[in-house]
Amino acid sequence: MPAAPAPPTSPAPVEPAPQLRPWRSAPWRRALYGSLALPAGIATFVLSLVGAAGLAGRLQRRLVSSLLLPGAAPADRPAGRWRANAMLSIPLGVLPCLLGTYLVANSARNLLYPLFSDGSYEHSWGGPTLPGAWAVHALGWGLTVVVIGLPLMWALTWPLHRVARRLGDLRV
User: Fold this and answer.
1) Average pLDDT, the chain
2) Rounded-to-integer distance, Cα 77 and Cα 167, Å
């Protein structure tokens, strides 16, 4: 009598896609991580060159576990894994760092609009008064950041998130 066929094996569980909810802190932490990934990657690389691999690993581990995956337990991995994370975060962190810098600079400019204008509000959006121009610039930019900037940062930090998860062997 032939053996019964083995039951089909179920595929590995797929991790649910994180949801972008701007009223929660996760998207803002992820955007901050995207902005800091490039400078932290460069700092980690320099620390590794001067022989401070342990400090470099702690820097990467702390950045990932506090901003990108809070609540994750970073495994005690060799510093080389965190160095690899840093090396990959340098090219992957260029666009999020540039976008983050742009968003912060323009946020400051729009929130402090009266300091950057020439004093004539007659032709500015929300003019002809200072409160109107200020309100339109601050609220308009705030909506732009939440509706366009935050989802774009979320998408640009996705590769950084994947690399950090794999190389750091993080468990949530």
Assistant:
1) 75
2) 9
